[in-house]
Write a structure and sequence with these properties.
By secondary structure, the chain is mainly alpha-helical. It has two domains: 116 residues, RNA polymerase sigma factor, region 2, helix turn helix motif (Rna Polymerase Sigma Factor, Chain: A), CATH 1.10.1740.10; 64 residues, Winged helix-like DNA-binding domain superfamily/Winged helix DNA-binding domain (Arc Repressor Mutant, subunit A, Orthogonal Bundle). It has eight helices and no strands. Helix 1 packs across helix 2, helix 5 runs antiparallel to helix 6 and helix 6 crosses helix 8. The longest helix has 24 residues. The radius of gyration is 16 Å and the shape is globular. Belongs to the sigma-70 factor family. ECF subfamily. InterPro entries: RNA_pol_sigma-70-like, RNA_pol_sigma-70_dom, RNA_pol_sigma70_r2, RNA_pol_sigma70_r4_t2, RNA_pol_sigma_r2, RNA_pol_sigma_r3/r4-like, WH-like_DNA-bd_sf.
Length: 184
């Protein structure tokens, strides 16, 4: 039996990948609370703070944006989304607890299989992000490409964490607009 949420999210992602900006906005708006709840539940077991959870949510949404072309339309979207979220939880724990031991049993479902060749190269990403100007571009580069947390970007750019999140969202929106212009 097909999960109606799965079907709906998959439909929105297919539409988004065809360039329907409204579908992409709805998808991200619907994914964010589900991702947040999942990250909060897993992160709580390891003592991640609310800010760490929010960083992982933002990084997950950024990764979904950057990697959405890698989702296979014939495959369920939920495992793909929550695998990305799981990786971002692990990344957040690595940054937060550089020497802590983490029980990987909670993450066995997302341990990678044989890696497929990633068609997105660093130079491609650099070219896309270079089209963003100002602080939004700097924030997207720091968080999305360099792996900085929201807190680290906040310190680096002398901004509040809230302002970093706003700049990240603006940068992602601009990337979506740029992509829509390329697809349309």
């Amino acid at each position: 039996m097909t999960n109606p949420v799965e079907t709906h999210w998959s439909s929105l992602m297919r539409a988004a990948n065809r360039g329907e900006e409204g579908a992409y906005r709805r998808l991200l708006a619907e994914l964010a609370p589900a991702i947040r709840a999942s990250i909060r539940a897993k992160g709580a077991r390891y003592g991640l703070s609310g800010a760490d959870v929010e960083d992982a949510v933002q990084e997950t949404l950024l990764a979904i944006h950057v990697k959405r072309h890698t989702w296979r339309e014939g495959e369920p979207i939920r495992p793909w989304v929550f695998a990305i979220a799981g990786y971002k939880i692990v990344d957040q724990m690595r940054r937060r607890y550089r020497h802590a031991e983490v029980d990987i049993s909670d993450f066995t479902e997302i341990l990678p299989a044989e890696p497929d060749e990633d068609p997105t190269t660093a130079s491609d990403m650099d070219r896309v992000v270079a089209r963003l100007s100002g602080r939004a571009g700097e924030v997207v580069r720091a968080i999305g490409l360099e792996g900085a947390s929201v807190a680290e970007a906040s310190q680096r750019f002398g901004m509040t964490e809230g302002a970093v999140r706003v700049a990240l969202h603006r940068g992602l929106r601009k990337l979506a607009d740029l992509r829509a212009g390329m697809v349309g």
